Amino acid sequence: MISVGVVGGSGYTGGELIRLLLAHPMVELTAVTSRTLAGSPVCETFQNLRGATDLVFAPVDVESLRRCDLVFFATPNGVAMELVPELLAAGIKVVDLAADFRLKDPAVWQQWYGMPHACPELLDEAIYGLPEVNRAAIPSARLVAAPGCYPTAVTLGLLPVIEAGLAVHGPLIADSKSGVSGAGRNASVDLLFGEVTESFHAYKVFAHRHHPEILQTLATISGRTHELVFVPHLVPMLRGIHATLYLQIDETEQAIRQLYEQRYRDESFVDFLPAGAHPRTRNVRGSNLNQIAVHQQGNQLIVLSVIDNLVKGAAGQAVQCMNLMSGFDESAGLAAVAQLP
Amino acid sequence: MISVGVVGGSGYTGGELIRLLLAHPMVELTAVTSRTLAGSPVCETFQNLRGATDLVFAPVDVESLRRCDLVFFATPNGVAMELVPELLAAGIKVVDLAADFRLKDPAVWQQWYGMPHACPELLDEAIYGLPEVNRAAIPSARLVAAPGCYPTAVTLGLLPVIEAGLAVHGPLIADSKSGVSGAGRNASVDLLFGEVTESFHAYKVFAHRHHPEILQTLATISGRTHELVFVPHLVPMLRGIHATLYLQIDETEQAIRQLYEQRYRDESFVDFLPAGAHPRTRNVRGSNLNQIAVHQQGNQLIVLSVIDNLVKGAAGQAVQCMNLMSGFDESAGLAAVAQLP
Amino acid sequence: MISVGVVGGSGYTGGELIRLLLAHPMVELTAVTSRTLAGSPVCETFQNLRGATDLVFAPVDVESLRRCDLVFFATPNGVAMELVPELLAAGIKVVDLAADFRLKDPAVWQQWYGMPHACPELLDEAIYGLPEVNRAAIPSARLVAAPGCYPTAVTLGLLPVIEAGLAVHGPLIADSKSGVSGAGRNASVDLLFGEVTESFHAYKVFAHRHHPEILQTLATISGRTHELVFVPHLVPMLRGIHATLYLQIDETEQAIRQLYEQRYRDESFVDFLPAGAHPRTRNVRGSNLNQIAVHQQGNQLIVLSVIDNLVKGAAGQAVQCMNLMSGFDESAGLAAVAQLP
Amino acid sequence: MISVGVVGGSGYTGGELIRLLLAHPMVELTAVTSRTLAGSPVCETFQNLRGATDLVFAPVDVESLRRCDLVFFATPNGVAMELVPELLAAGIKVVDLAADFRLKDPAVWQQWYGMPHACPELLDEAIYGLPEVNRAAIPSARLVAAPGCYPTAVTLGLLPVIEAGLAVHGPLIADSKSGVSGAGRNASVDLLFGEVTESFHAYKVFAHRHHPEILQTLATISGRTHELVFVPHLVPMLRGIHATLYLQIDETEQAIRQLYEQRYRDESFVDFLPAGAHPRTRNVRGSNLNQIAVHQQGNQLIVLSVIDNLVKGAAGQAVQCMNLMSGFDESAGLAAVAQLP
Fold first, then answer.
1. Terminus of chain D with fewer CB atoms < 10 Å: N or C?
2. Which fold has domain B150-309?
3. Residue D286 and residue D239: Cα distance in Å, rounded?
4. Cα–Cα distance between B338 and B282 in angstroms, integer?
5. pLDDT digits (tens, 9 = 90+) for A166-188
């Protein structure tokens, strides 16, 4: 049993994290902080939690978190890096769900996030929290950077091919689609129901911050540089990411299927689908699962990879990391399946 | 052909008004103003209008509107009353789509809208722009107050009964449901896709500003005071109002059906449906039509009344008033039917 | 630990029941039957259940259910009554989620469901499975008729007033709104995305089968006949019922609030909200909770009551009944809160 | 003024065609047929058309269409080819919105549509009704095959590059997303609101019938064979197609922008957007417009192309062809812009 805190608990990722932690058998959630909501009950903001918690939002300071063994940051980019050094110094482990500790190179961070990094000395220590890639390193980490939602869906979709070092001809193309909750719970005209529903569009072509993150992870895995074309799109739905990945390869479909099957046979949270399958984002809504299917014709490989952006793409994966960091069963608190419909 | 301006053209009502006016055969739209968007092309905000207009948002001042014969206000409540006196003095007619000139009693206005009225001397002159009720008075009006969306659906649903002075036992109950566009295009967490979709709820029970407006209209029609229970609800859809009205009456269903049929036989924009019908909001989406059905059992009468909140509930009705004020055919520019699906 | 079967497991209610039972700590789900899908894996139809179950749909016959201690029917109306006598004779308990055993009078059943009842001799024995009303009778029942979704939301919203025998003037009005999953998973043009989304409408005014069910329950509670006006509406969302209830009463708001607070203080699955609250259906999506709020002005009482139609309105309530019938904690397997957003 | 008929008027494409034709200034819609609905008023099925037409569905036979100058087929694939020869023989022009006359090779047709072609002798004569490609040939055609919805969005997105014969390295990738109305108005579980909303998925990877159609058109334009990877996806919305096209080219972004600008400068229904734009499907909802944007980095070109699948992707384009075949202004009856929101 560990004591856990959540910094920045008023957004969609924070709310999902609170929901998962309250149901976790090995966790006591002892602090949830919010700059804007300090003093008000958590269940006023998240009315699904009435009866499930009496917690009141605390101010965002180290004092509120002193009792915690581990703290999650579900804050906007740039907040965690201001507080993390002090928490680590106090012996508190950290899982950051924002981007602060994902990129290894502070110059790249500054280029994409528009501010200098506050504690570049921690970037090397931070472990990228994708258990399917870094399962060995996460248990002993003090600081874990949970991956972005798109990077999770794209990286797990490509992982077997990249790890196997298969020659890929031409760029990797990652046509990616996300539900609206991925953009957070901010008062913005662009996220209004009236702007989003009954429409579909691409955004930030060549300019999305998850691009360097995916590239860095792929390079770490394969030891070489990859060419990636990444186009995000907004889908009029709450949750879900669907990555459609296009690769030109030399192997047969049978070889590729075997590669994926072997790679993911023992992964609790990756479900490689039978031939011919087309995963739907709803299959994994609210669950920590990643469903993957492959289709091939000649040397054209198409990988379909779906996750829930708030669970496997954020809060669920962060809990999975916490489980590993705390010696719990990796699946503890993450057994729920999706609700249909 | 008249020259027309729109003040406050950056919201959903303003956008709908611009769309209707650009297609109107007797109108030249010469000015659209916006406090926040002055200087930017209208079609950057409303990308459906690319190619349809080269207008640029003008600043909100009388100068921008000097050339107009008639000006619409699609502004937040409290803005029109600051500018209208000057416009009227300049010989420019006004149709206000906000609430500034709907209530006759400035004290009631102040109570519900939280500010003193800037030109109470105009309240008597202002004509309530519900053509089915005030068709005689609108043509000669200088200043028309277009009704709210809920009041339009509720009032037209009740009109034949109220006009006929039928005894109604107990309160009139107006259980009303609106699509999200009725709340406008404001950056507000409550209107986010993530907050609104896949949910349904009542709001402002006993506290909605359309309550006194409906009561005033009913009293004007019948010459007596009515008791009304009005509960608005938010539906996860873009457009549409569905009012479900409950009345206890003494007449037979046959008598009621005849009453509605006769009352609405010559109305272009009210479609009284055959027995057994259940109108759907989509039937009138994008159109200026009001579909009404009645169901009766014993002395319980149920009226179902649907409109598009942005058209018959706002911009379309305002154009209908403009047509009357300008000597045009009342239906000019309002012939489009709903798109299905 | 008991062995449980589900008859008619291919619809939305069946799928939700399977999901809840697979996660239930005291249940082994040993049989799921389907007329049309016999022989195919359950997780092909419900792809959210991949990895969670290896069950294959069995044919619909008593043989498939012989091992079960308790069997749920999630079949169309009229199916359960053909099989239930044989199951009871074999010592197997039954919870029917269809309407077969809800109405006490076989003539009323035939009138509303269009067929003679196959085993009218069981109607008296069947217990109406609303634990908040029948908690004493359910534990010893062999046959439980789980309530309809609308009746659950309406009855629990009215219960304190009806039980207290408060004088209500005029009819009880239940303006009710349901998500689309309440209509089931049948290939019907009326339920297509293209017909349902972005629209709202009433249906079956004065003609819905839940009308006699609600009336019967209210009469059982109060010992007298009530007058009820019940209008169902379809909301373009997956799950959720919102009942808006209108009553004319003599008591003060304070008295009414105390009545509801006391009545529901010890109910695990009814959450009576603070003054001024407007419950949203999403607050209880996927959970077995019923949130209720009251608003009053003069003698006009408005009750807002929300449930998830597939959980508290169907599968969850059936599990709650099973818990009572099996001596389990009433909340076993029903602890999950709603996901937001 | 011409007399026009619609065969198969009960689906979404048929309904949209009826809506457009009723508002067309040069058309009298004299017959709408339906196998299943013969004898019932059109406005009972399409309740948006109440008051706009008194037409009654006629049986599907040549007799019903004898008076027409031109007949549209909005029927399932394989129906038009049975009736078209007789209509042409009677001097009636035909625009087929189904696939019967799109593919030139009857063997390819049989392979993809699973039945022998009934009148292969007409395949050569049939003109592919994409005015931006075939404007010269359409006016004199007796038989026009209106393109599929995906092929319209993809082909117009690629057209300038293909016409210019630019070298494209590697396959053309067309990641395509469609609203649900593209699948028609058929009673199918897969199209239920409960199955489609709040989810996103790819379907028919390597197996969609629009694949050979796009390939044929590209080959006709360039005179050579292209390699195309086409993946369709279903978006939980009513209308709209978004094609995201990936090409590897040698030209500069500036050259590509000029190419698109020149090619589409005089096209009424193609709107080439300024640099940096991300078109939204809602911009063209209900309109006949195709909005296209290009983004380039190095030699990676990304084209974003959006249409309304029921208008420019079906009924609107068919009317555009009719206009050309009848000597009308090409834009007649097609001026409406999209409604926002």
1. N
2. Dihydrodipicolinate Reductase; domain 2 (3.30.360)
3. 8
4. 7
5. 988 999 999 999 999 999 999 99
CA–CA distance, B250 with B169 (Å, rounded to integer): 9
Kindly give the residue spans of alpha helices, DSSP state H, lying in chain A.
12-22, 42-45, 62-65, 80-89, 106-113, 131-134, 149-163, 193-196, 210-222, 253-264, 316-325
Long-range contacts of A53-57 (CB under 8 A, 24+ apart): A53/A18, A53/A22, A53/A29, A55/A29, A55/A31, A57/A9, A57/A10, A57/A32, A57/A33
Task: Report pLDDT for D64.
Answer: 86
Residue C20: partners with Cβ closer than 8 Å, 6 or more residues away: C311, C315, C316, C319, C333, C334
Phi and psi based region of residue B31 (left: phi greater than 0; alpha: psi -120 to 50; beta: remaining) = beta
Q: What's the DSSP call for residue B115?
A: S
Report the CATH number of the C150-308 domain.
Answer: 3.30.360.10
Every domain of chain A with CATH number 3.30.360.10 lies at 150-308
Nearest-by-CA chain C residue for B235: C235
- At B62 the pLDDT is 86
Residue C130: count of CB within 10 angstroms of its CB: 23
Distance CA(A75)–CA(A59), nearest Å, equals 13
Nearest CB to B341 within list C195, C201, C279: C195
What SS3 state is found at D219?
A: helix
ipTM over 0.90: yes
The CA distance from C288 to C309, in Å, is: 9
One DSSP character per residue, D272-306 reads: EPPTT---BGGGGTTSS-EEEEEEEETTEEEEEEE
What pLDDT was estimated at residue A129?
A: 98
Q: A residues 132-191 near D, CB within 8 Å?
A: 169-171, 173, 175, 177, 179
Bridge partner residues of B73 (DSSP)? B7, B96
Q: How far is C230 from chain A (nearest CA, A)?
A: 26
Q: Are B317 and B153 in contact (CB under 8 A)?
A: no
Which amino acid appears at position D39 of this protein? G
Contacts of B181 in chain D (CB under 8 A): 341
In the Cβ-directed half-sphere of C70, how many Cα atoms lie within 13 Å? 24
Q: Is the pLDDT of residue A104 over 90?
A: yes
Residues of A in contact with C287 (CB under 8 A): 48
Domain with CATH 3.30.360.10 in chain B: 150-309
Report the C-alpha gap between A94 and A73 in whole angstroms: 8
Q: Model-level pTM?
A: 0.98
Average pLDDT value for chain C: 97
Strand order in the sheet with C143-145: C27-33, C2-7, C70-73, C93-96, C143-145, C127-128
Chain C CB contacts of A312 under 8 Å are none
Residue with token string 């640099």: D275
Inter-chain residue contact D189 with C186, CB threshold 8 Å:
yes
Helix (H) or strand (E) holding B21: helix B12-22
Q: At what angle do helices B149-163 and B210-222 cross, to 10 degrees?
A: 20
Segments of chain A assigned to CATH 3.40.50.720: 2-125
d(CA D81, CA D120): 9
Both tokens of residue B93? Answer: 């007619």
C2-125, CATH topology level? Rossmann fold (3.40.50)
Non-local CB neighbours of B43 within 8 Å, separated by 6+ positions: B49, B50, B51, B52, B53, B54, B55
Q: Over the range C84-100, which residues count as b (16 or more CB within 10 Å of their CB) and which as e?
A: beebbeeebbbbbbbbb
